[in-house]
Amino acid sequence: MTAELVRGQNHTLPQTRLEIRVSAGSPVVAGATLGDERGTVRGAEWIAHPAAHRVPGLEVSRQAAADHRLAVDLDALPAEVHRVTVVLALPMGAGRPVSFGAVAAPFVAVTGLDGTEIATFTLTGLDTESAVSALELYRRQGAWKVRAVGQGYAAGLAGLFADQGVAEAAETAAAIQEAVASGLARSVTPPPRTTEGERVRHPAGPAAAGAQAPAPPVPEAQPAEPLGDPASARTEAPGGGPIDYAHPRRQTSAPPPPPPTAPPAAPGQPARPVAGDATGWSMDERLYNQIWGMFEDLARAVAAYRSAVDFAESRMDQELDRALSDPRNRIGGAGDRAREAARAKRDELTGRAREALERDLAQLAAESAVVEPALPAAYAGWDNPVWHAYRVPMEIPMALRLGDLRLGEAPDLRIPLLVRLPLERGIWIDSGRTASETAASTTGDQLRGLAVETAVTLAARLLAVYPAGEFSVHVVDPAGSAAGQLSPLVGSGVLAGPPAAGAEGVASVLAHLTRRVDLVQMAIRAGAADALPPDLDTGEHLLIVNDFPHGFDDRAVTQLRYLADEGPSVGVHLLMVADREDARAYGPVLDPLWRSLLRITPVADDHLADPWVGHAWTYEPLRTPQGSRVLEQVLALVAEARRGGRR
Questions:
Q1: Contact (Cβ atoms closer than 8 angstroms) between residue 577 and residue 546
Q2: What is the DSSP code (8-state) at residue 71?
Q3: By 3-state DSSP, what share of the chain in percent is helix, strand and coil, each rounded to 5?
């Protein structure tokens, strides 16, 4: 049962791996500080904030947003840490709120990893404060508890840090605000949340009571994990051009509404679906926002249906308990009549919920039928005719399609899984066995082959959506076990070099990319981009690693983790093809790597969970149609454009 805390109240935590979710009426900066027994923060390394979003046992969001998720592992905290304080602050800037009294009261929830709420706290009573200690997790006699704090500071983060004993409180606060301001300047305004009934309508009445799923925050502008752009992701190239690993068209003001493209529907009839019927600065952005709206609608509709079914089952059980609690009803026909009446009511409520779900699914299916053919290449499946008219683009798109998502109640309705570009986290394609039915019927060798094929198709899509020469792909295949699956990339000549084999090949590629990350990071920090070597490729790079950990020694593993952590901010991305069981030989040293990457599978598997309504979504990778040569044709055009750019 959820504990609804008031200021000063505490509650015991039943587990040590938690999520802290923050919802606010406007974008806020969410961070956390670590304190010793006296609550003192010993230095900047004990503060997690957007510019340094990870400390041992804790990870926070990289940008200001109205919705945040903070990951906490209390067992992974340093032994001297006895307190974790969750901090909220208003980002500074013209036109932004200057105090919490001017915005809606923030809401904070402590949940388990399955989304179950443990404790909640609404921060009411704030006025002139621009920073607040929302709540704290503290250790008492070997057990962890959570306390609602709600202590605000009119002096902002500087005053809050000074109160916690930070030596350079003002400087630390200024650095955080500067990083947040830089991130906001390059972030696109999130798609607006749909109001109740605006897109899909849920059943009314008792069957739907409690069935309304909370409106999930729109993935990524936040998504599905709200990670923003690193504040230090921009400098100047040796030739004077920008090195910018953020999307070039992100805006700071609200996008315009969609233009009217269809006549209004008749009264009582559902709106006629139209492709691009969402807010946005361009058709690509409107389609992106519309797809995430469809994802939200499907999540809410299924959550309402499942809740209604649970309500009907619970009501039937309660009616049976009341009817059969009287011993006189347990014999004769009274008990049978009570059972029949309870089951009939259950079936009626369930049927009404199913009818409402079918209406919502029909509307979403009609919308999908309109949207799918209108998608640009970056968002489209390989069977979309848009690929037959493919031309190498002049700029990168807003997002890339990684696959499809579906739920069991609507097996034929698939929502594109879009991730923003440039990639802000690496990808792990799990080549091992999973609990899915498809994986159980597939041999280990087949799974490994399908995993490499999935990596090849993803690499091909990335190469295809970037301008010629602005994206390079490196492959590490130590044992040469994926030569057949890699042939489309090798044969087309789009790779930066032949696949690296053996321990020496692994070391060479990792050293090259690690050097690139180091040099660009040093140039950014020193503001000396003109000192970069003239032969340094400042475009983006993707490293595909197959058959891990074969060919990797301890040094190579350390470099791989470094690339996973530091590479995305300067345009180096990681795509692992591996079985986690094979990597367990390295013990917990690889757990951070595993957790930092987005895990997908080469076959359908319901491993992707949304944290808003608790659904387990089935992910399906994108496949080229049987017998189609679309992949080879696209890669040939990419290779031709790259050769033309080198002339």
A1: yes
A2: E
A3: 35, 25, 40
